[in-house]
Design brief:
- 2 copies of one chain form a homodimer.
- Chain A is α/β, with parallel strands linked by helices.
- Chain A is built from 10 helices and 11 strands.
- The mean pLDDT of chain A is 92.
- At the A-B interface, helix 7 and helix 8 of A face helix 7 and helix 8 of B.
Amino acid sequence: MNKIRIGVDLMGNENSPQDLIAALKELTPSPHIELILIGTDEFKHHSNPFPYITAPEVIEMDEPPLAALRKKKKASLCIGMRLLKEGKIEALVSAGNTGALVSSAKMILSTLTGILRPCLLTLIPTKKNPVAVLDVGANTQVQAKHLVQFALIGTAYQQARGIEKPIIGLLNIGSEAVKGTSEHRLAYHNLQTIEHPTFRFAGNIEGTSVFDGNVDVLVTDGFTGNVFLKTAEGIATMILDRIHDHIPPNEFKKFQSLHYAEYPGALLAGVKGIVIKCHSYSTPRGFTNGVLGAIALAQENFIQALQDKLSNEIT
Amino acid sequence: MNKIRIGVDLMGNENSPQDLIAALKELTPSPHIELILIGTDEFKHHSNPFPYITAPEVIEMDEPPLAALRKKKKASLCIGMRLLKEGKIEALVSAGNTGALVSSAKMILSTLTGILRPCLLTLIPTKKNPVAVLDVGANTQVQAKHLVQFALIGTAYQQARGIEKPIIGLLNIGSEAVKGTSEHRLAYHNLQTIEHPTFRFAGNIEGTSVFDGNVDVLVTDGFTGNVFLKTAEGIATMILDRIHDHIPPNEFKKFQSLHYAEYPGALLAGVKGIVIKCHSYSTPRGFTNGVLGAIALAQENFIQALQDKLSNEIT
C-alpha cells in the first residue's frame, strides 16, 4: 500500500503554526500516512517531526485574491496546490484566504470535466443523517445554472458516500416555488424539470427544517451558505458552551462538528484534487479534524469516484 | 387610562384558528387590554370570549402578494391593517403571507417620514444583551442605501429601548471590508463615513460572532436575514429538544425565544403602526408571544418614539 501524503498549509489560521504543529503531533500516527507541512522559515524548526517545505511568501486574509496570486507565486497555499497538481501529495489542507484558495485551485488544478465553478461543500449533522451543504463560501453570487450544478455535485458526493438517490433541497425563505430571487425561481424550475434525474428534488427548504434531516443535499449560493454555516456554528457553540456541564458526552458528540472549535473544514468540490478549507478561526482541534477528513477522502480515492459519478450527470 | 386594543389576524398560521383562540384565552387577562380577533365566519363562535370581526376572504401563503391584495380587499389582514390605520386598534398581529402583509402595510398605513422600505426586525438572544436583527424577511434584495437605512432604524429601535449609542454590525462572510457583494462593500463604506453618527459602526460581523453579543444591531438583507433567523431557530430547536431533560429550566429560558415554538415574531419597522409578523409555523405559544410583544410596544407608544428618534437620523 502506498503512503498517503497530506500537505498542510500552516499559514492563514489565527493560531500560530507552533500551536498547529503541536496539535498535529497528537494525531494517532499511522505508517501509511505522511503529513508534509508548508510554512514560513521561522516555524521550520519548532520541534517539528514532519517533513517541512519552506514558503517564502504568505497571502494575507485581507488581500484581494487575484492580485495576491499574481504577486506571490511562492505563497504557502500556491506551493501546496502545485504539490497536489504534481502528485507529490494526495490532499491539501489550508485555512488560508478563501478567494485565493479557490482561484489558485481553479488555475493550478483546473476543474473536473463539465464543472463551471468549484464550490465549498461541508457535512453538517441533523436529527437523521448528515446533510451536504454547498456552496458554503466559494461563490458570493451565483446564477441558476450554478445552483443546478451544485445539486449535481452534491448528488455525486452523497452517492460516493453510499446514498443511491439523494434528496435535494434548495435553501430558501419559504417552501413555495415563488420564493426568493429570480435565480432561485429558475433553479427551482430547472431542478424540477431535469430529465432522468439521479436525485429526488424536494423543493425549497427553510433554515428551520434543514435540521430535520429530510434532505441529503442542501443547495445554496456561497454567501447565504456561509452565513448559514457560521450561524449554525455560532448558535451551537453558544448553547453547548453554556450547558456543557449538563450534557451527557454522547449527546455532545452528536453536535460537536457544529461547534466551531471542532468544525472539520469544507471540501473544495469540483476541482481535480482534494482540497480542504478550514476556517481562519479554526482551533488547532478543528484544524486537525480537517486533516483527518482529508486523509479519509484520500484513502477512498474520492476524486475519481466523484468524477465518475459526475460524468453520468454532466454532459 | 385608555384600553389598548390588539387586532389578531387568526388566518395564515398552520394551526387552526380554534387552537390559536384556545391559546389566547390562556393569556393573563388585564382590564386595560382588549384582543380583537379577525377571521373567517366559521371560527366566530368557537367558544370565543373576544370581540370578533368576520373577514370574508383570506390571502393564502402561496398567492403572489400584489395580485392577492388587488383581488381580496376584504381579506383578514387587510381588514386588520385598516383598523390600525383608523385608530380602532393600537397594534396588529398576523402570521399571514409576508409579502402581502408588507405591501398592505405600505399602502394602507404608509411608511414613516423618510423611510424607503419597511423591514422586519426581531430581537435574538446572545451571550450578552439581545441583538436587533433587520431585515429578517421583508426585502429579498436590497441596495446599499437600504442597508444604511436599516442601520438607522435599528439604531432608533435600540435607542428607544434605552441604549444611547448602539453598536452596528453588517452581517457578512468575513470581517474584511472587501467581503460580500458590491452592495455590502458600498454599505460598509457609507456606514463608516456617515457624518455625526448616532451609532458606532463595528464593521462586518460573521454568523459565528453575532452570538458573542458585541453588537446591538445586525444589518442584513431580508433573504440572508431570514435564513439567519430560521437557521438559528432550527439549530437551537434541534439541540434544545434533544437535551431538554438535562438542562436546568433557567438555562432553557435564556434560549427559548430561539426555539421556533416560542419565537415571538418580528416587528414590521418603518410603517405608521405596530405590526407584528409571526411565522406561519408558529406554535400557538409562539403566536401568543407575538401578541404579548405587540401589547408591550403599544403600551410604550413605541411608534412615536421610533419616529422621534428617526427624525434625528433621516433628513
